[in-house]
Design a protein that fits this description.
Length: 370
């Protein structure tokens, strides 16, 4: 399941680029067009950090040698895949001499189907690279989480045990009772944090079964609506589609409850008090790609651009009394289902979280609603 949005396309208005761009759009891709010369392409690539740069080499406006030299020479952009649609042997040799080359060179005059196949192949390679990096990162963090939980649990248990004994022994001392109650409260909070860390290191192994995503989301939404209705100053509508023609997915029911509860809770917290809030759930499937998708969209405060790439990192949070494992656990669980999580946000306007799941062959359909 490759990402279809994070592509930069150097558009030179030639028939070849028009045909490839249209061909990709017809297959669900949304490339960002860059019209300009070498400097503009380098600037936009550095700014947007795409998975793939499709580069039509059209001298004198575009110098693919200079583009590769700069992008592959910078730590921030050297992992971006570059496909040069030119195929001039002299230019390739020139680039190879510098050791700063594109990831692939093909003739721009090949049939559009072959060009598309090359693009798809490179994006598939990119997806595998990202999965490998994430697996290595999570494995290392899992080992760290295990060490943290082991080292902290015993002393926290001792502190909590002695605090309860002091509280019981000094029942008639109100100052002592207040201080010890605070200690116990913080100990309980630390124990919950350790439980979260332990869940991150060894997620609960629930029995898998077929789950109706829409039915599950309706139940979770009802629970949150009850909380919202009981909270003064909160006006938030949660819309979940009624008609469900999606096939069921094979997953842990409790795991998905945790995933969607976390996402809905984040969406609610992102909507300021006094604003008429709206959380909209959408769902569908892409038979050609073999995926089911769900989107949870809110009209909250949004996420600043500098924080967007960090929100799923373990222990990253901007909220008081949180440790920043909520979205990390969401990501981990969806990844275990061979799915993916993508977040798009615009500061001041809201956030959309898209989750995709692989479509299971011969999965049953949901029971029709009566």
């Amino acid at each position: 399941m490759i990402r279809k949005e994070n592509i930069l396309f150097s558009y030179d208005h030639s028939l070849e680029s028009q045909h490839l761009y249209k061909y990709m759009k017809d297959r669900g891709f949304s490339p960002f067009l860059v019209e300009g010369g070498t400097a503009e392409i380098i600037y936009q690539t550095s700014l947007k950090r795409p998975d793939l740069l499709i580069l039509y080499d059209s001298p004198p406006e575009i110098d693919s040698h200079e583009i590769c030299k700069i992008l592959k020479g910078q730590i921030e952009t050297q992992s971006i895949l570059i496909l040069v649609l030119d195929g001039k042997d002299a230019k390739v040799e020139k680039l190879e001499a510098f050791g700063l080359v594109a990831d692939a060179y093909v003739s721009r005059f090949l049939p559009v189907e072959e060009l598309y196949t090359k693009v798809y192949s490179l994006l598939s390679i990119r997806e595998l690279q990202l999965q490998l990096l994430e697996s290595e990162k999570f494995a290392a963090l899992g080992r760290l989480a295990d060490r943290i939980a082991h080292e902290f649990r015993n002393p926290i248990t001792v502190i909590g045990g002695f605090a309860y004994r002091i509280k019981k022994k000094h029942l008639n001392d109100p100052v002592c009772q207040e201080y010890v109650s605070r200690i116990i409260k913080e100990v309980n909070r630390l124990e919950r944090i350790i439980d979260q860390i332990t869940e991150f290191e060894t997620p609960a192994k629930e029995e898998y079964g077929y789950v109706d995503l829409i039915d599950l989301l309706r139940d979770i939404a009802e629970q949150f609506r009850a909380v919202i209705d009981a909270t003064p100053g909160r006006k938030i509508d949660i819309e979940v589609p009624e008609n469900n023609e999606l096939p069921l997915i094979r997953a842990s029911l409790q795991g998905l409850k945790n995933v969607f509860s976390n996402l809905l809770e984040n969406a609610i917290e992102a909507i300021p008090e006094g604003r008429q809030g709206l959380i909209k759930v959408q769902a569908g499937m892409d038979v050609e790609e073999g995926i089911l998708w769900m989107k949870i969209q809110d009209n909250g405060t949004g996420i600043p651009p500098e924080e967007l790439n960090k929100v799923m990192d373990p222990f990253y949070t901007t909220k008081p009394y949180r440790i920043g494992l909520g979205l990390t656990l969401v990501y981990q669980h969806i990844r275990d289902l061979q799915g993916r999580v993508d977040i798009q946000s615009e500061e001041g306007k809201g956030t959309t979280v898209t989750i995709t799941f692989p479509m299971v062959l011969k999965a049953p359909l949901p029971t029709p609603m009566k």
